[in-house]
Design a protein that fits this description.
By secondary structure, this protein is mainly beta. Helix content is 4%, strand content 54%.
């Protein structure tokens, strides 16, 4: 059953040597202590010693039922039979999740000796839920959370808890699966979300791969932005990107309704689209760069008045998961972030 109610149709074959005259039937729900409550009923006429007829009952909800059929013949005999059956919901809950959350590690003096030993954070599965709903007939939800690592248990919620404890090893961008479990049916579905773990490295003795995380590198770039320039490539020293703090918070955004939209979908795996609006046909530059400011893709040209869309495919981008894109047109410049899921 994939919907909230089930339409039952049963074909009955009746035989009686005395000649059939009529039938009637009822469907009863079997409750606690085997109490039977009539849910539906019907009747009809029969003729001859053998005849088929149909029983149709609509909108039966999950539960256990008994179908009872009574037959009468021309000799005034009456017989009956019954059949117990169950309707189970296989419809899954409807998960609606936030696409990404950020957790910042807190320095922790684990042994209480006055020295910070490590850093940690706890994130609860329910924090990723936006407005998930249980399957029909159910009345509650529970959530489980796991970090995806490509292992077979990624496809099962067995053993997963309703929280994640994060530490120094988790710094960076991670893909997390939120399991949504509907009760009492225990049907289950999930959505994959992005977890960004940040730290100032207090309590973390070593940075991943000997370097700062993607977001820490970006923060360092912004702290020294006044004299920073980012090369498009090593062989073209004349083509540089000047990344400014004001650029990241919408610099000079008042140029006759030029507008840069958030890429969609975001995060993405195979392809995403960047849309921007121009008040008239004009030259514009759309540049994609990594968190170090290095240009990884650049689109330049004359674009049309109104809405313009640029499709970005995974194979055009590096393997890094966090990227930025900037639109430059006349005196307008704006930067937005996009996330590539591996």
């Amino acid at each position: 059953m994939g919907a909230c109610a089930y339409n039952l149709k049963v074909q009955v074959k009746a035989e009686d040597l005395c000649g059939l005259t009529e039938y009637h039937w009822d469907i009863r729900s079997i409750g606690n202590q085997n109490n039977l409550k009539i849910q539906d009923s019907g009747k009809g006429s029969l003729k001859g010693i053998e005849q088929d007829f149909s029983i149709i009952s609509q909108n039966l909800f999950p539960g256990t039922y008994r179908l009872e059929v009574h037959l009468e013949d021309e000799c005034n005999n009456e017989s009956k039979c019954f059949y117990d059956f169950s309707i189970k919901s296989v419809k899954k809950p409807s998960p609606v999740c936030y696409t990404s959350l950020t957790a910042r590690l807190t320095p922790w003096d684990r042994d209480q000796d006055g020295t910070v030993d490590t850093a940690h954070a706890i994130i609860w599965a329910s924090e990723f839920d936006r407005s998930s709903s249980p399957t029909c007939g159910d009345d509650s939800l529970e959530f489980r959370l796991e970090l995806l690592d490509g292992s077979p248990d990624d496809d099962s919620a067995a053993g997963d808890l309703d929280f994640l404890e994060l530490g120094c090893d988790h710094i960076g961008t991670r893909l997390v699966r939120l399991w949504v479990i509907s009760y009492p049916s225990q049907t289950i579905d999930y959505c994959d979300v992005v977890l960004i773990v940040q730290s100032d490295y207090t309590g973390c003795s070593a940075m991943p791969n000997g370097d700062a995380s993607e977001f820490e590198r970006m923060q360092n770039n912004l702290n020294h932005i006044s004299d920073n320039k980012f090369m498009e490539n090593a062989d073209n020293t004349d083509d540089v990107i000047n990344l400014s703090v004001s650029g990241l918070i919408n610099n000079n955004i008042n140029s006759e309704m030029i507008r840069l939209e958030q890429n969609n979908p975001n995060p993405f795996m195979s392809e995403t689209s960047i849309t921007f609006t121009l008040p008239r046909a004009m030259h514009a530059n759309l540049t994609i760069f990594d968190t170090n400011g290095k240009v990884v893709r650049k689109y330049s040209g004359s674009f049309n008045q109104g809405s313009n869309q640029v499709a970005i495919r995974r194979e055009e981008l590096p393997s890094t998961s966090v990227l930025f894109y900037r639109l430059d047109a006349e005196n307008y410049s704006e930067v937005k972030r996009m996330i590539l899921i591996k």
